[in-house]
Automatic annotation (TrEMBL):
Record InterPro entries: HTH_LacI (IPR000843), LacI/GalR-like_sensor (IPR046335), Lambda_DNA-bd_dom_sf (IPR010982), Peripla_BP_I (IPR028082)
SUPFAM superfamilies documented for this protein: lambda repressor-like DNA-binding domains, Periplasmic binding protein-like I
Superkingdom per UniProt: Bacteria
Organism in which the protein naturally occurs: Pseudolactococcus insecticola
Protein name (Swiss-Prot/TrEMBL): LacI family transcriptional regulator
Residue ranges occupied by any HTH lacI-type domain in the UniProt entry: 3-57
Keywords: DNA-binding, Transcription, Transcription regulation
Pfam name, any one: LacI
GO molecular function, one term: DNA-binding transcription factor activity
Length: 323
């Protein structure tokens, strides 16, 4: 018969709840009691159980994945794909994954604090970057191991991050459209916040200017007007599909009149015609590398922080055409 926590509690002379808290290395349990629980586990043959290993190492054997504090996460396939990738790599390393998600910064911070203070996780992977972010500042100030998927705009030297070169992505989008003969280009976005937007847009803008072009910026939240533009670089695949539909309603054909290139290579990219020409940002590798770097930080907390750059690849499909 398998040994249970109740068996361990009886042998150690404590309550089952005390054993549970001792396993999580909870601060309210004294070192003396933790030793009693550990000894009871060993005597009862509970040592090979993951809980005993947690108690012996002082680690939870789990990591937290922090989603951004926004309401429309389900609209972005990136988040589910990156979470799947993180789970795959964590499973290979025998690490469990917990999720922190809320609609406000305050609620998210509270959740992250509870997860760490109650020893539910050993560290975190943040799926977003933002300036003056309370969650990030808490992790830094309390010296909690964490990795960011994205590129921090400040305090980058203190943070291990995993990302694509989004500046280069924006530049490469311009280069490809120009190679097709397009000279009137616009960048279309539904947000002007966040490092991903800034990096992709400025890469687009600087490359276009270096080629003697006069690029424009279009906010899709307003009426979509492209005038004489023949090439659109769009913030992501989801927005690209919406833009193509709106252009169709205006009687503008993609790619016959306007070429469209986007980013992320989500499953939406080849869902409806025209299939999207888009950059595959290698989400699987982003997830795997983030877990690998966090595992390294958990073993070597004083090691240098670094940025890991994951390569990307252009997938040429139906939404672009030479002029």
């Amino acid at each position: 018969m398998a040994v249970t926590i109740k068996d361990v509690a009886k042998r150690a002379g404590v309550n089952p709840s005390t054993v549970s808290r001792a396993i999580r290395n909870h601060a309210t349990i004294s070192d003396k009691t933790k030793e009693k629980v550990k000894k009871a586990m060993q005597e009862l043959g509970y040592r090979q159980n993951s809980a005993a290993q947690m108690l012996a190492s002082g680690k939870a054997g789990a990591i937290g994945v922090i989603f951004p504090p926004v309401e429309n996460k389900s609209d972005q396939p990136f988040f589910m794909k990156i979470l799947t990738s993180i789970n795959e790599e964590a499973r290979d390393k025998k690490i469990t994954v917990a999720i922190a998600s809320a609609h406000s910064n305050e609620a998210l911070l509270s959740q992250v604090q509870v997860m760490y203070q109650e020893k539910r996780v050993d560290g975190f992977i943040m799926l977003y970057t933002a300036q003056d972010d309370a969650v990030r500042d808490y992790l830094l100030s309390d010296k909690i191991p964490f990795v960011v998927i994205g590129t921090p705009s400040d305090r980058a030297n203190e943070i291990t991050s995993v990302d694509n070169d989004n500046h280069l992505l924006g530049a490469e989008a311009v280069q490809y459209l120009v190679s097709l003969g397009h000279k009137k280009l616009a960048f279309v976005t539904n947000t002007e916040l966040g490092e991903v937007y800034q990096e992709r847009y400025f890469g687009f803008y600087e490359k276009a200017r270096s080629l003697g072009l006069t690029p424009s910026l279009v906010n899709s939240e307003k009426k979509l007007t492209i005038r004489d533009v023949t090439g659109l670089v769009i913030m992501d695949d989801i927005l690209a599909i919406k833009v193509i539909q709106e252009l169709s309603e205006q009687g503008i054909s993609v790619p016959d009149q306007v070429s469209v290139i986007s980013f992320n290579n989500s499953f939406f990219a080849s869902l409806i015609h025209p299939y999207l020409t888009t950059f595959d940002i290698n989400v699987v590798q982003l997830g795997h590398r983030s877990v690998q770097k966090l595992a390294h930080l958990l073993d070597y907390p004083d090691d240098f922080r670094e940025k890991v750059t994951v390569p990307f690849e252009l997938k040429v499909r139906e939404s672009t055409k030479a002029v």
